[in-house]
Write a structure and sequence with these properties.
Helix content is 41%, strand content 11%. It is α+β, with helices and mostly antiparallel strands. The protein has a seven-stranded mixed sheet with strand order 14-15-17-16-18-20-19, with helices on both faces. The longest helix has 26 residues. Bound molecules: zinc ion. Zinc ion binds next to loops. Keywords: Carboxypeptidase, Cytoplasm, Hydrolase, Metal-binding, Metalloprotease, Mitochondrion, Nucleus, Protease, Zinc.
């Protein structure tokens, strides 16, 4: 048994002995040693070929074997020695994987090989075996050497290989390794350009031919080389000029027809790879269209669809077709908002000035993506090592690194005299309650007794004697205080429910499902809602939801609508807002994405181009052309969104059961399309209708990750199910062929729109259904809720509602003050009352984030409830609440902006009193509180997040920001209280939807003008937060796998209150003794957390994409102008590592577009 081992050892030592001989000879090379070296290398080669152990010996650590071998190669000019050494290397590198190759590269092997290649080719004809060996080795080494492309070019190796290929087209044995190396050279873009000039493209086309079962390996390598060469725009142009694109299409068809058993999918994929790269340039796309590429690839793909293994072909074809689909402008006269609102002044250089200074024809779309190609070679660098750098840099770009900007400070502080006017919003601090009758407090009005009264009798808005804001409230009559007299024509002093004129002849249910119209000025009919119009009055069955919806009252809602001022002067009311929404008790799971749904949708879109005669293209709703009535043949759906928060601009019937929909831009802007709310009627039950919202802007959406749209059926409501339900199948979100000009897109070239598509089957005939992006929550609804809430006030509750200011659109912005009444007017009680810390809450600065209003509703209901915890909470704090910071945006169906066309959550640094009144006065009120020593303990602005799941918070921490920037934190003298972590930590323990791991406390530059950062930095509120609620659902906790509903959102708002209650205990150690052990445990737990030194480990830096890539990503990221990037594949990956600018609702659109 010992014998083989001995033998092995013996041979191993022998190879090392030979190598050390070789080493000596290498050191003092003499002519006479040539034979010796040849002999030794021959022996080594033999040993290595026959003994696996010897290979390991040679490359084992510290053996120096590789150096000796390379040194021989470098020094000798002897052909046989070279062949021996190359043979040795080939044996060594064939097995052992990347490690041996890594050793080879690190010892400078690549350059030695390349030099040998070049020097051996100087006296042609070169030795064929030598060339084969060198190229086989280069092919092994190239992909492992990051600098391979550069080294090859600098050594002059490119042309050697090209010439070898050119002259050996039929010498398969030599051709294959040379092509393989050429393929590796070409992955460097500069090399690709140089090789193109040397005729490499033409050579490849000499090799590539029609279907043949011979030499498929060679063909595959030639195609891959060609594809790599075509990544250069210059080569792509050359290919188009020579008519190669039709050739490639013909070859593709040939393989598609003949490869019936799908044995050569890789070759077919490689042909598509070449087409894909040529069509990166405009000329290529044109050639593709001219060569009927669309029809060819479409037909081939359709035949491939049933075979799952052909998916790569279908996906690549779909990507090419989408890229080549001619870009269109949206079918609109202009992408500027339909509705304009004159501003008191238009700041020069602001978004509105820019919008209206745009030249005519700005919306026209030109394929602009080739502009910079002429400079391609100059701007190309060697890109092989750049990935490393860019990969890291991007992540920290947005983090604030200026320590001075991170330190809280007082800036822009107005003189106290100017702030004094805010005193009357804070009367609780000066009131002495002497007139209060604490002995006989006003009795509590039970909820159930309130509602019936409100249902029938006249609506009386309870007058809060304390509410005399700087601006006047709207009176119930709505006729006194509407500020702009020119609007008097839309004053609505009576309401009646009438149906739309087209319902006249019908007697069935559709009759009662006409539109809810606010009668009066528009219809000119009834004056006071009487039944004088006889048969035209709908006998509407209002679902009785009083018991389920204590804060809802249809009549009161209509009353509220009357005093709501919209830019389009809406006179209709949407049924869901009128009837109310009773939250479902059903679980609504996050939808699982159906396989291949995206490409099926894309193929249907492509069919429009291939079979244009199948397309109806009938406009069925058009806000831009309201005077031109839609011809109704009873076959089309009817659309409407002329009601509060509605924003459908145009609807086009594309096919019998398919509609393209266009959303209106935010007023005074030409973009921000995301939120939607519209009505659909005249549907057929049991039919699958496809809806496409075709002017979405964000690059990704939760609609790709299981989120469904919301639908409200009026029939269902009348039948006892008045509720918004998650609905729709085949939902997906992808880039489409509509585009806008670079000027309209703020300088970006060829900015494409995205399609959000969903399919719905309606249940009822003659129903009226509503669709929304998320659970609607209108401004009128807020006013109704506030009125009902104020009616809940008891003697124990101190409740005040004032108007903080009037908005640009003439609506009031409510400000609430909620706390507990003092127990008596004694000095002690009054002093306790006044010493309560302030909690400042706000919501809905972004109108499209309706979820934030539902969370706020939950908070307010809790604050007004009579539970002992609510009472305790009121006794602990004074709440200042602005439940809707952007009423105008909400009313007019905006997604992000106010009427000034700006994101109000980007105005906190320098709000303008005229253009951003709600922000200006909110900030001033905060400044007043600070100036009077009442800086809030907590500030929280409620938002909605469209890219992430769960509920989470953003806060501000100097330390966590500094740590993220890799600045040596120890050099900065930082003292920071960790109290900012307590509230999120409490929430993560209490609120099931809340996720601590999604929270971040990093201060970003792009957010320096948001409420959170400004209130932290300028007002000095340490616990200053943005609370983000998902629009989709949760992926952790009790609600894992479920879409979020209003119950969960309202619960979140209530849990926020409970967390504040615990925070109060936690922040007042003296009170600890009074509470139970459970609470103490929890607090100890919190203290533990606070003492962990490296607390940042919990923080996720939230710029990361939180959703995994999904299967169809390849389609999804298709860019029309990716030829500007040297490496489209890398680009796609990079793109996902980059922060999606839209992923955070706080990020301004400007950021997202630039
Ligand atoms: Zn937001």
């Amino acid at each position: 048994m010992n014998k083989p081992k001995m033998a092995a050892e013996k041979s191993a030592s022998r190879v090392l002995m030979l190598l050390s001989q070789l080493e000596r000879l290498n050191e003092e090379p003499k002519v006479s040693d040539k034979d010796a070296i040849r002999q030794i290398t021959g022996k080594v080669l033999h040993l290595i070929q026959t003994q696996e152990k010897t290979r390991k010996e040679v490359v084992s650590k510290g053996s120096g074997g590789m150096e000796v071998i390379l040194s021989s190669l470098e020094n000798t000019r002897d052909l046989q020695t070279n062949l021996n050494v190359l043979g040795i290397l080939n044996e060594l590198l064939t097995v052992g994987g990347g490690r041996r190759t890594g050793v080879f590269v690190s010892k400078g092997g690549t350059a030695i090989l390349l030099q040998l290649l070049v020097s051996s080719s100087k006296d042609p004809p070169a030795n064929e075996e030598l060339m084969i060996l060198i190229h086989s080795l280069l092919f092994k080494v190239g992909p492992k050497d990051k600098k391979f492309g550069v080294k090859a070019r600098l050594n002059g190796a490119l042309n050697v290989t090209v010439n070898l290929v050119k002259h050996n087209l039929h010498n398969y044995k030599l051709l294959l390794p040379c092509l393989q190396v050429l393929r590796v050279y070409s992955s460097n873009l500069v090399n690709a350009v140089s090789l193109g000039r040397s005729g490499a493209l033409e050579i490849m086309f000499d090799i590539i031919g029609p279907f043949s079962k011979k030499s498929t390996t060679l063909l595959k390598v030639a195609l891959d080389t060609l594809a790599a060469l075509l990544k250069s725009g210059m080569n792509a142009r050359r290919a188009v000029d020579r008519g190669y694109l039709p050739t490639l299409l013909t070859i593709y068809q040939d393989w598609h027809r003949n490869d019936t058993r799908h044995r050569h999918v890789v070759i077919r994929k490689s042909i598509l790879g070449c087409i894909k790269n040529i069509t990166n340039i405009k000329l290529g796309r044109k050639a593709f269209i001219d060569a009927s590429g669309m029809r060819i690839l479409y037909n081939a793909s359709t035949e491939c669809l049933p075979v799952r293994t052909l998916d790569p072909l279908v996906n690549t074809s779909s990507l090419i077709m989408r890229k080549c689909f001619p870009k269109n402008r949206l079918p609109l006269p202009t992408i500027k908002s339909v509705f304009l609102h004159p501003l008191p002044h238009v700041p020069a250089g602001g978004p509105v000035a820019q919008l209206y200074n745009q030249p005519p024809g700005v919306d026209d779309v030109v394929d602009e993506s080739d502009e910079n190609e002429a400079t391609e070679v100059d701007t190309e660098n060697d890109t092989e090592n750049e990935e490393d750098e860019t990969g890291h840099k991007t992540q920290n770009d947005d983090i604030e690194t200026d320590i001075n900007k991170l330190r809280p400070r007082q800036i822009n502080m107005r003189p106290f005299d100017e702030l004094r006017v805010y005193e009357h919003f804070c009367r609780e601090f000066t009131e002495n309650f002497e007139d209060n009758d604490f002995e006989n407090p006003r009795s509590f009005i039970p909820l159930s007794s309130v509602n019936p009264e409100l249902h029938h009798g006249p609506i009386i808005i309870p007058t809060t004697p304390t509410s005399l804001g700087p601006q006047n409230r709207c009176s119930p009559q709505g006729d006194v205080l509407l500020p702009n007299s020119d609007r008097s024509s839309v004053e609505l002093d009576s309401i009646s429910i009438s149906k739309s004129p087209d319902g006249k002849s019908d007697c069935d249910l559709v009759y009662s499902l006409g539109r809810l119209v606010l009668d009066g000025s528009v219809n000119g009919g009834s004056v006071d809602g009487s039944q004088e119009d006889g048969g035209e009055q709908a006998d509407l069955e209002v679902p009785d939801t009083a018991a389920l919806l204590p804060l809802h009252d249809p009549d009161l809602y209509l009353e509220m609508v009357k005093s709501t001022r919209s830019v389009p002067a809406y006179t209709e009311v949407a049924y869901p807002d009128y009837f109310g929404h009773v939250a479902l008790n059903l679980r609504e799971p996050i939808l699982e994405r159906a396989y291949g749904v995206q490409r099926i949708k894309i193929f249907q879109d492509i069919e429009r181009l291939i079979h244009p005669s199948d397309i109806i293209d009938k406009v069925v709703y058009d806000l831009d052309n309201q005077s031109c009535p839609v011809i109704d043949n009873g076959e089309s759906l009817k659309f409407n969104s002329k009601f509060e928060s509605g924003n459908l601009r145009k609807a086009m019937q594309v096919r019998k059961f398919e509609y393209d929909l266009i959303l209106n831009s935010d007023i005074n802007s030409n973009h921000y399309h995301q939120w939607f709310y519209f009505e659909v009627g005249n549907m057929r039950p049991g039919v699958r209708y496809r809806f496409n919202i075709i002017n979405c802007e964000k690059s990704n959406s939760q609609f790709n990750y299981g989120m469904q749209v919301l639908m409200y059926s009026v029939q269902d409501a009348i039948n006892g199910r008045p509720q918004w339900v998650r609905t729709g199948s085949d939902i997906c979100y992808y880039k489409n062929h509509f585009s806008r000009s670079s000027i309209a897109a703020g300088g970006q070239k060829g900015k494409s729109y995205f399609t959000m598509t969903f399919t719905v089957t309606f249940q009822h005939k003659d129903d009226v259904c509503y669709f929304a992006y998320h659970y609607p929550y209108t401004y009128s609804m807020l006013k109704m809720h506030l009125q009902k809430l104020s009616a809940l006030s008891t003697a124990q509750i101190y409740y005040r509602q004032e108007d903080l200011c009037e908005t640009l659109g003439g609506n009031s912005c409510p400000l609430l003050t909620i706390t507990a009444m003092p127990e008596s007017s004694s000095n002690d009680h009054i002093s306790q009352f006044r010493s309560r810390p302030v909690v400042f809450l706000s919501a809905r600065v972004h109108p499209g984030e309706t979820n934030s209003s539902w969370v706020m509703k939950g908070t307010l209901e809790f604050l007004m409830s009579c539970s002992p915890q609510a009472q305790s909470l009121r006794e602990s704090y004074i709440f200042k609440v602005i439940p809707m910071l952007n009423p105008d945006g909400v009313i007019n169906g905006n997604h992000r902006c106010s009427l000034s066309g700006e994101d109000l959550n980007r105005q906190w640094q320098n709000p303008n009193t005229e253009l951003h009144p709600t922000i200006y006065h909110s900030k001033s009120l905060l400044q007043y509180l600070r100036a009077t020593g009442r800086t809030p303990l907590v500030f929280c602005d409620y938002h909605g997040h469209s890219r992430k799941k769960n509920v989470f918070m953003y806060g501000c921490s100097i330390k966590e920001t500094v740590w993220q920037t890799n600045v040596n934190a120890s050099t900065v003298d930082l003292h920071e209280d960790l109290g900012y972590r307590t509230l999120p930590k409490l929430l993560s323990q209490m609120a099931p939807a809340f996720s601590l791991s999604s929270c971040s406390f990093v201060v970003e530059r792009s957010k320096e003008a948001t409420a959170r950062v400004v209130v932290w930095r300028e007002i000095g509120v340490q616990r200053s937060y943005t609370m983000e609620s998902t629009l989709c659902g949760c992926d952790q906790g009790k609600y894992k796998g479920l879409q979020i509903g209003t119950n969960e959102l309202e619960e979140m708002g209530a849990q926020f209150c409970l967390a504040l209650l615990r925070l109060r205990r936690f922040t007042s150690p003296l009170e600890l003794h009074n509470h139970n052990s459970h609470l103490l445990d929890m607090e100890n737990d919190l203290i533990d957390t606070r003492s962990i030194p490296n607390i940042t480990s919990n923080t996720t830096y939230v710029l990361d994409e939180d959703e995994p890539a999904f299967l169809e990503e390849v389609d999804y990221s298709a860019e029309s102008n990716d030829e500007n990037d040297p490496d489209p594949e890398g680009y796609l990956q990079d793109n996902h590592a980059l922060p999606d600018p839209n992923s955070d609702s706080e990020i301004s659109h400007q950021d997202s577009l630039n």
